[in-house]
Amino acid sequence: MRFDSFNGDELLMMLAGSANLLAEHRSEIDSLNVFPVPDGDAGTNMHLTFLAGVREVRENKGSPAGEIAAAMAPW
Question: Which of 41, 44, 51 is closest to 20 using CA atoms?
Fold first, then answer.
């Protein structure tokens, strides 16, 4: 499917979907973690950080895509 543009709510949906995909594949990502220490939690940490950002950004529902992206950027 091709998108020429999308609004803030659609971007928020994409971010939530990305968080779900990270959750689905976090053990695979955990196994890739070898630097600087192979502690096996890279996927878990990535998912939890991204999910926290998505939860916070949901407060901006109805905002333009640029504002959603700016709110997610620090995460």
Answer: 51
Instruction: Confirm if 47 and 22 have CB atoms less than 8 A apart.
Output: yes
Report H helices in 1-75.
8-32, 42-57, 65-72
How much is the pTM? 0.81
Residue 28 Cα distances to 25, 41, 51, 57, angstroms = 5, 10, 18, 26
Distance CA 74, CA 54 (A): 11
Handedness of CA 9, 11, 14, 16 (dihedral sign): negative
Alpha carbon distance 28, 21 (integer Å): 11
Per-residue model confidence as pLDDT tens digits over 10-29: 999 999 999 999 999 998 98
